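Quick entry between incubations.
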Amino acid sequence: MEPTQHLLMHFPPNLEKYGSIFLSAYQPLPVLFSDAGKTVKLKQKSLRVCRFCGKGSDRVNFRKKAHKIPELLGNRYMLSDFECDTCNEKFGKFENDLAIYCAPMLAMQGTRGKEGRRSLASKGKKIMIPFVFDGIELTLITKPDPDDDSMDFNHDTGKNSFRFSKNAYTPVKVYKAFLKAALSCLPEVEFKYYSYAVRFLHEDSWDEKNMDFAKITLHTVPMGSGHHAPVIFIYKKRDPQAAIPTHIFVMRFANCYVQFMLPFYDPDIIQIYNKEVAYPVCPPVFTTPSPDISPTFFNVDLHSFEKQKAEEVNLSFDTDPDILKKNGVVYDHQTDTFKPLDAFESIASAVMAPSHTSFTNEQLGRLAKVIQELNEKQKI
Ligand SMILES: [Zn+2]
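Done. Structure below.
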């Protein structure tokens, strides 16, 4: 069992009402912190049984390191001792689609996957490139085309936005990657009622007409209020007779909360699957008093087997306008100098630094060279 904690739930002040509606229907199970998992001892390989195919170590191998939550979301320590190599390989294929789907959030937050922080590309061109300068983690933001208006930094309001197109991905594979993570986080006593959901994970030809459940709710919160390693919240309905799904899974990674009902809990199948299911949504939870923020909220339908091509995404993040005015500078290639942030409209690169970072003139001079080199590499 992962080290877990029962914690006070803090909702953003303007969403407290929805938080209490949710908590009157659902009770939280212990919160799982993926970065606390390093102290957990895994079961000896010879005693392992795969949760997803039911086979033991006499029939399948357990040589690979299996992650309960994909490593690309920033989980390094929460490992599983109940996923065989065959299932791991099969489910690992969903992660390519998950990586594309989550790329903007992960790049913005600077989440570390297996290969460290990831770049973000739009139409094949890198637009966010992480790098380290004097021990500070920075991100270079470049415009694919200096004349385009896909990026906007507003120094008066502190609201910044990016528009770019994602690479192609298959929605149902993204959903399966999330579902597999959720099923891996469930305690065994709850998991045993999800055999139908496991069947769905394994099958490639499920009828799309019967896949209405494959949806997620996505909340995004301002950058910087995030937790680098994923945090998992699982909720169980208080009244077993209530006509709502038994479990709601919420995963926080980068600056977003992905939330969905777990489909096909055996008793739910009889109780709720013959009618329209409506259930309350859990607002973003903070484990320390929440900042006064208004999260953005979307419902995303992921039930399609059809590849989504060049989906346009709008990313926005807030920064403190005072910090932005004081510290926001952009690098001008033409003159090899730094200029105030409002010059970004006509200039092709900017650097995102952690808030409260400040650079000396000497550092800015060296930083300009690093940026120039990074930009040169892009052109090749
Ligand atoms: Zn297996």
